[in-house]
Amino acid sequence: MGMKKKLTAIDVVEEIKSGDISCEELILEIYERIERSELNCFITLNKENALEEAIEVDKRRSGEECRRKKLLGVPIAIKDSISTRGIQTTCASKILTGYVPPYDATVIEALKKEGAIIIGKTNMDEFCMGSSTETSYYGPTRNPHDLDRVPGGSSGGSAAAISAGETVLALGSDTGGSIRCPASFCGIAGLKPTYGLVSRYGLIAYANSLEQIGPMASNVTDTALLLEVLSAKDERDSTQVKTKNNASTNYCLSWLNGKRSGNGGEGVGVEVEVKGMKIGVPKEFIEGVSPEVEKSVWNAVHKLEDSGAIYEEISMRDLKYALAAYYIIAMSEASSNLARFDGLRYGLRTGKDEDWHTTFSRIRGEGFGEEVKRRIILGTYALSAGYYGTYYLKALKVRTLIKNEFEDALKTHDILAMPTMPFVAFKLGERIKDPLSLYLADVNTVSINLAGVPSISVPCGFSNGLPIGLQLVGKHFEEDEILKAAFVYEQTFL
Amino acid sequence: MLLKKEEIEHIGWLARTELSETEKELFEKQLSSILDYFAVLDELDTEDIEPTYHVIGIKDVVRKDEPKEALSQSEALRNAPKKEKGYIKSPRMF
Question: What domains are defined for chain A?
Answer without folding.
Answer: 9-259 (3.90.1300.10)
